[in-house]
Design goal:
Layout: H1 11-26, H2 28-36, H3 43-57, H4 65-79, H5 82-94, H6 99-113, H7 115-131
Length: 132
């Protein structure tokens, strides 16, 4: 059985691990903006996503980051989380997916998440992928 990535680590160590992965996947510029925009209302949430999403889940050894990006893009398309989808198209490119592979992920999502969801995803991804 695969151990959770954060098992045995302190919250601070999980945060540090998560911040390193978050910066590698999303870019320093994106993370710096998110930190700069943190308010007392969002501080606990920023800590949570850094420790749990990035420090625990994205840090697990079970999937390469490329595969995690495929899973994330598919989920965001299906759920209609457009702002996060755009951010993760950039992240998928950083994680080594090609523009052609991202187009295939979107096309595949048309079958399982619906043509309207894929249509929106293509519209949002096109400016990014056309530059890639």
């Amino acid at each position: 059985m695969t151990r959770p990535a954060g098992e045995g680590l302190s919250d601070e160590e999980r945060y540090d691990q998560g911040m390193a992965v978050r910066r590698a996947v999303l870019s320093d510029a994106h993370v710096d903006r998110a930190i700069a925009n943190t308010t007392p209302t969002t501080a606990d949430f920023q800590d949570f996503i850094t420790r749990v999403a990035w420090g625990d889940v994205w840090s697990r050894p079970g999937l390469e980051r490329r595969m995690r990006s495929v899973a994330v893009l598919s989920s965001l398309i299906a759920l209609g989380h457009h702002e996060e989808f755009v951010m993760h198209v950039h992240a998928a490119l950083r994680n080594g997916l090609s523009a052609a592979e991202i187009r295939e992920v979107i096309l595949q999502s048309a079958v399982y998440a619906g043509v309207p969801a894929a249509n929106t995803a293509f519209r949002l991804a096109a400016p990014i992928l056309d530059e890639a």
